[in-house]
């Protein structure tokens, strides 16, 4: 396409990346992270649920961040 602006990607300096992809709209959210842990994944998910709502289905590549069990919160829920 002539005249289209070039896609500029940020320099990723963190070794891990968490992707959220809405399969209906195709919207992509990318979160570079320093660690690949359930705590990091949980924090990012908790930040996104108020913005986009709780998904009906959450898929993963079964990486360690999604296979590990996260400690329970103060109210006894994960």
UniProtKB/TrEMBL annotation:
InterPro entries: Integrase_cat-core (IPR001584), RNaseH-like_sf (IPR012337), RNaseH_sf (IPR036397). Keywords: Endonuclease, Hydrolase, Nuclease, Nucleotidyltransferase, RNA-directed DNA polymerase, Transferase. GO terms for biological process: DNA integration. GO terms for molecular function: endonuclease activity; hydrolase activity; nucleic acid binding; RNA-directed DNA polymerase activity. It comes from the Eukaryota. SUPFAM superfamilies: Ribonuclease H-like (SSF53098). It holds the Pfam family rve. Residues 1-78 form the Integrase catalytic domain. PANTHER family: ENDOGENOUS RETROVIRUS GROUP K MEMBER POL PROTEIN, RIBONUCLEASE H. This is Gm29423 protein. It comes from Phodopus roborovskii (Roborovski's desert hamster). The gene is Gm29423.
């Amino acid at each position: 396409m002539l005249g289209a602006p070039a896609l500029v990607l940020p320099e990723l300096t963190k070794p891990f990346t968490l992707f959220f992809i809405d399969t209906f709209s195709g919207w992509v959210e990318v979160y570079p992270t320093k660690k690949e842990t359930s705590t990091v994944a949980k924090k990012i998910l908790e930040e996104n649920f108020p913005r986009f709502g709780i998904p009906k289905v959450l898929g993963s590549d079964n990486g360690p961040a999604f296979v590990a069990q996260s400690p329970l919160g103060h109210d006894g829920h994960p």
